[in-house]
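Table S5 (text form). Sequence records supplied for joint modeling of the two-component complex.
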Amino acid sequence: MKIEVNQKEFHQCINTVRKGVSTKTTLPILSGILLKTEGDQLKLIGTDLEIGIESFVDANIIESGEIVLPANYFGNIIKELPNDMVRMEVNQSNNTAFIKCGHSKFNINGFAADEFPTLPEIESGYSFSIAQSKFKDIINQVEFAISQDESKPFLNGGLLLLEEGEIKLVATDTYRLSYCHSPLEDQEVKLESIIPAKTIKELSRLLDHSEEELEIIITDNQILFSFSGIIMISRLIEGQFPNYKYVIPNKSSIQAKADKENLLRAIKRAALLARQDANIIKLNFAQDELVITANAPEVGQAFERVGISLSGDETEIAFNANYLIDALKAVDNEEVTLELSGPLAPGVVKSQSGDYICVIMPVRSA
Amino acid sequence: MELNIIHVDMDAFYASIEQRDNPKLKGKPVIIGGRGKRGVVSTASYEAREYGVYSAMPIVKARQLCPQGIYLQGDHLKYREVSGQIREIFYRYTELVEPLALDEAYLDVKGNHKNSIRIAKEIKRKIKKELKLTASIGVSYNKYLAKLASDFNKPSGFKIISPFEAKEVIFPLDVNNLWGVGPKTAQRLKELGFYKISDIAKGDRSLLIREFGKRGYQLYKLAQGEDYRKVTPPGLPKSLGKETTFRYDTRDKGVLRGYLKDLSKEVANRASNKNVKGKTITLKVKYENFEELSKSRTIEGNISKQEDIYRLAEILLEEVVLDKKIRLIGITLSNITEDGVEQLKLL
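The corresponding structure-token record, covering 713 residues in total, follows.
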């Protein structure tokens, strides 16, 4: 293999696939990136066999071929090279690559490409498209609630649902649940799959705010995302995700509307003096104002007032401030509604448009 | 500067309890410590000390020095109970009790209108009368000097260090008598020409600060007999941990899981005694070559039950590479909160 690639484009492409590369593995070849010439392009793949990310970079292909290079060394070398033409020559017989750019020369040892394992190809599955920016927004609104408790693997991902002509994403760590839904044209099947947290995180990083299409293909145990010349394949999490419909309360006795930004800022300030161990803040809902208090023993107290319009009885409830902050940050409207049904019942944060809902359990204090 | 700080240090605590409860042991060298080849001495009675046996010495060594000694494994539950009885005596005089160990505590009696020396004498007398044990007591105006005083004429000592005589008492002492000065610091101090506490007190403060940083300033102050640390009753523990060294090194997962179950139970019991919960579980292992490794996991909720502690510890154990045998395993629960508040669950 003998190729020439622009340093900047090369670096960008490596950075894209590098997130798929395994960081801790007992299989050394998985810490590498596969490079393979394809037509007038160079294809790069990184995988940890849970996710695989594939991307292309334009190249001047003088001689075709393939090799696996250690992602760390190779990635850092290309990153630090001057923005110039990078020439790379692979000795297929001993799997080494010679890299030359300006006055820099590197020789690095790699692995034979035919030993590189890849995720099984997606053969057939249900396919649909959505605008990149739309899907990125949905992810960003839901992602934070994914559980990290490894003893419940089915919660270590987001539930993607296609039903009732909509696309929905749900995540919960059992203390809170975030939910986002959006209409999806020409969508008639009913389908559900749990996408691993890492896949969701990398996807959110790689998707951009464009109206360009993101194609999604779902099979029984894999999901494929294709966008901007990048293909990402991920295994799905097996298991039964809890039924979100039972978790989201369908009625409430108290509703309070507030300006989202004001409320978020007030909570962030009050949280500065929330008890460090449990992050508790108290919310006291009165007719036209919400009083937020926090008390950190030995440090001091915080007191915040936010204008609201309340329907229902006045009430007091305690929450983990971080849960409220996460939920409010995900609201993309100016106005937000808080719905409650008593100090020990779940609280609901809703965006004005109703597309986004976050259910949070309160804290019971002794 | 009032004489409000009292340091109480029980004399050969564990050994004295055993001698008290078993008259046959009176006057004999009694050594409490772990059984087996790897055990160390936790307490030696004064009779045993005559033979050169001291705390933290390997039992094997102690047996060489004092073969006729009576070696006991010790009954920690009993010692804990007696320690509680002693603390109960302290609480009759003040709430400000800071235990350092089962056999040692600081008291601040500023809130008690009685004269502190009289309180200290009463405490000593009550420990003797009610519990049949002796304590050495130091009274002074700060923690450092109170502790130094209790150590002066052990056993059954009683010493007051007043502000007027403080310098006279501490100046002639070797620098290793300063709080926080171990062998390393002592050596460095001597290299710098500080042999006695008076050398530091009269020495160059900026040299000390240059050499030891913030601690240098603290040493300088201590040498003047000044110590600003407060007597602080224990708040929430920072962590609750329990570890165990195996009789035989092992790499058998089943055996390790068995130990984890027992340790989880002990940690859970301690959490429930203290009425706390925690967010983080740390698993510690020590390999046969004494290499140590710890892995931890923090979860969203708070846990305190044995099942929950074990469940996380087991996940962590899966991450431990068992290419070598293990000699010790331990579990710690940290990120502690009071059990009073409870984050409710949706599912």
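Note: The longest helix of chain A spans residues 7-18.
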